[in-house]
Amino acid sequence: MLKSTEIRRQVAQRLRELFPRAKGWEESADARIGPQTVDLLVKFRLGEQEHALVVEVSSLGQPRQIRAAVTRLAEARRELPGALPVAAAVYIGPQSARILKGNNLGFIDLSGNCFLAFGNIPQHQTSMDRKTNAFAGLFVQCHVQRHQPGPFRW
Asked: What is the pLDDT along the chain (154 residues), one digit of tens a residue?
């Protein structure tokens, strides 16, 4: 099993790959946000818009661990309202993904799955096909699907 520090390193690399056009990329491990410490804080610009991702790493993406991450990410959201809270793990299965999406949180795993919602435009990515993303002119290394209302499906 990978250690949290290795997962964090690989997640940061995966995020850089997902946003190759990002400028001013900053990564802070064990960053302080209010009274708590988060595993990773990533800040970058896309065009003129600034983004921040607050990432909580869990070695297991099982629902029990994800529920604990939901609590920590909700606290981070209160302290840094403009940031996108993201859970990260080696693998986040369908049940854990539903928990995260139900709490309006993003996720990314090392198996190629992620869900990141900037503003009102969710990006659901589940395969490693290379496609062009119409959102903000991003070139992402995953197939991007528009979020459809209704139940989450893999």
From this structure: 788 899 999 999 999 999 898 999 999 999 999 899 999 999 999 888 899 999 999 988 999 999 999 999 999 999 999 899 999 999 999 999 999 999 999 999 999 999 987 654 444 554 433 333 333 333 333 333 333 333 333 3
Q: Give pTM, 2 decimals.
A: 0.78
Distance between CA atoms of residues 17 and 3, nearest Å: 21
Residues in the chain: 154
Query: Domain locations in the chain?
Result: 4-117
Residues 6+ apart with CB under 8 A from 95: 63
The CATH number given to 4-117 is 3.40.1350.10
